[in-house]
Amino acid sequence: MIIFKAKGIFATFIMQAYHLIGIMSGTSLDGIDLCYSEFIQSERITYRIIHTKTISYSEELKDRLDEAHQSSSLELIRLDADLGRLMGSSVNDFIYEFDIKKVDAIASHGHTVFHEPQQGYSTQIGNPAHIYASTGIKTIADFRSVDVALQGQGAPLVPIGDDLLFNEFSYCLNLGGIANLSHRKSRTRIGYDVSICNMALNHLANKVGQPFDMGGNMAESGTVCIEMLDEMNDFHFLAKVPPKSLGKEQFLEFYLPILNKFEISIPDALATVVEHIALQIGNYLNNGTCLVSGGGAHNHFLLSRLQSKTSCELIVPDDNTINFKEALIFGLLGFLRLTHQTNSISAVTGACKDSIGGCIYG
């Protein structure tokens, strides 16, 4: 037990360590990210990443996930169950491989299929009942629905982790399928999606048989198409004031038609998308430091273009933080759920109040 004084009030905390496995499946369809971490609460929450691993999707499952938004109801239910079973078996293999002895809970983001918070829903699959049945470990999932029901965006959820674990940085930027940013404003953490990111870049790389543009080398060899760039920069979402969030729906409805419209080389298209991403993020970065994570942090050309748009210092951390920060933070959200603490911030999502999200199985 530790006793400390904060703001003139003596508070008592039991120094208990919680061990969670965070599961993340992002819009880039890279696979299932697993992060085994320890969380301890004292004056602030401290964490330790212990083991990590990414389980790649088979081509068959990747195709099913990519087309999930247009599946029949029955096909979607089957996919939900299949993905849940895969996540459960992946956790079992992960525990065996690293000889993990203690897991208080699994915290799963699931895989987003539909995200239309203005219509009152955000749907993630990867059935948590199957994860629990496969592992026998308490499983927490469905972190977004309560916030959406409270008129919030249900996203992004990562900013609370930025605030609790990475608040030494002025900004935290995630370059995943979608680029999102969080920072403090008037002593309140805010966060929002900024633009499309790897969802568009990977789509273009796939056209030439590559899973992604390694290091941004293809984009670096291309030339920006000004007409295409102007059309992307006209997206009405970009002018909206936060809170705001993007989903696959916006990629399909707005970005994909533009990518298909212009008959230019893949390197030129990649260079243009990179310029669009860098411009949009650069609009939000002022002075200070910015922690960069997500797959896009490995895209050196994207980072160089972004650095040219801002005086803010871009900080690229170790590979574990780059690749598993979101899975780590979903583990944190699970820890907050277990300890009955807020894990969704209304200032970020636009909900009518803060909330504690996540359903517990087991």
Can you give a write-up of this model?
The chain has 362 residues and is an alpha/beta fold. It has 2 domains: 2-158 and 357-361, ATPase, nucleotide binding domain (Nucleotidyltransferase, domain 5, 2-Layer Sandwich); 171-311, ATPase, nucleotide binding domain (Nucleotidyltransferase, domain 5, 2-Layer Sandwich). 38% of the residues lie in helices and 26% in strands. It has helices at residues 59-66, 73-97, 128-135, 145-149, 159-165, 198-206, 217-221, 226-233, 248-261, 266-282, 300-307, 319-338, 346-349; strands at 2-6, 9-13, 17-25, 32-41, 45-55, 105-116, 121-125, 139-141, 171-175, 178-185, 188-196, 289-293, 313-315, 359-361. A hairpin with a 2-residue loop joins β1 (2-6) and β2 (9-13). α2 runs parallel beside α3, α6 (198-206) packs antiparallel against α10 and α8 (226-233) packs across α10. The protein is globular. Residues 1-11 have low confidence and may be disordered.
The strand count comes to 14
* Poorly predicted tracts of residues: 1-11
- Write down the secondary-structure element order: EEEEEHHEEHEHHEEEHHHHHEHEHHE
Report the mean per-residue pLDDT as an integer.
95
Give the % helix: 25-40%
The major pleated sheet works out as:
7 strands, mixed
Tell me which CATH architecture of the largest domain applies here.
2-Layer Sandwich
Oligomeric state as shown = single chain
Strand-residue proportion: 25-35%
Output the CATH homologous superfamily of the largest domain. ATPase, nucleotide binding domain
Number of domains: 2
Gross morphology is globular
- What is the helix tally? 13
Q: If you compute it from the alpha carbons, what radius of gyration comes out, rounded to the nearest whole angstrom?
A: 20 Å
Based on helices, strands and strand pairing, what is the structural class? alpha/beta
CATH topology of the largest domain: Nucleotidyltransferase, domain 5
Which CATH class of the largest domain applies here?
A: Alpha Beta
First and last CA, distance: 28 Å
